Amino acid sequence: MIARLLFAITLLLAPLASADVPRVVTSIAPLQGLVADIMRGVGSPKLLLDEAISPHDFAMRPSQAKAISEADVLFYIGQDLEPWLEKALRSRDNKNLVIALGNMPDLNRLKARELDDFGDDHNDHDHAGAHDPHMWLDPSNALIWLDIITGVLEIADPDNKATYRNNLNRTRVKIVDATENARRALAPIADVELVVTHDSTQYFEEAFGLNVIGAFSASDGQKAGARSLNALLGQLGPNTCIIADTTNPSRITANLPDNIKLVVVDPMGFDQLGEGYYPRFLNTLVNSFLECRD
User: Fold this and answer.
1) pLDDT of residue 127
2) What domains are defined for the chain?
């Protein structure tokens, strides 16, 4: 599937083959980090959403619209995460290549949970309907994206193909190692009951066997109603840990009982950008979740 996809991209990118290093734009920090590691030594992708806020309802600035119009290649997740970007892409008048990585083949795609889905087996893969767009929190998806990103860049910039391929191999090994380390480290909290302020960590939960029992808001930002919220708050106890998403703050966390642990996480990894992004991002998430231990 990926090979056929890259062949199609070859036809689209043929005019860029003799050009300079392609101008690459990424929508969110996790994609910027992955692309930057593949482009190491060649260039640096531009990040559109360059502040620690939710990507769901971001208001784009003129400078960001200009970056989109000037890009040779743009990587983003898709409509479910960046509707503001979809609107900008429909109005563009150039022929840059736009890659919606959330729509790529072979990904682990989980159903976007309703707030009453917790505790039920609703995580069907590749079913019809909306998917949870926070796919970068599953390392297996990040590895698939690395292959696609590398293939696109090799086609767009054949002069640096060897560098991209070497960077891919190095980055892949580091992510695989970091994933195994994360799995071992998180095993002791498998039975801790976790409640998230925003349902952005479902992929992380599945990948590492964590036990999330509820959320204050769904993956699309929909907030729990009073009845659902009261029922969830009634489940909180000494074995419960609240995971507060920095991109979707909740006022509820200010009034929690003293015996409820509260941990802050950044599922977008804004503070982790730089060389070796994804392993560092993963390690930071793991350390945050480990604060839920007794």
Assistant:
1) 38
2) 2-105+113-181 (3.40.50.1980), 187-290 (3.40.50.1980)
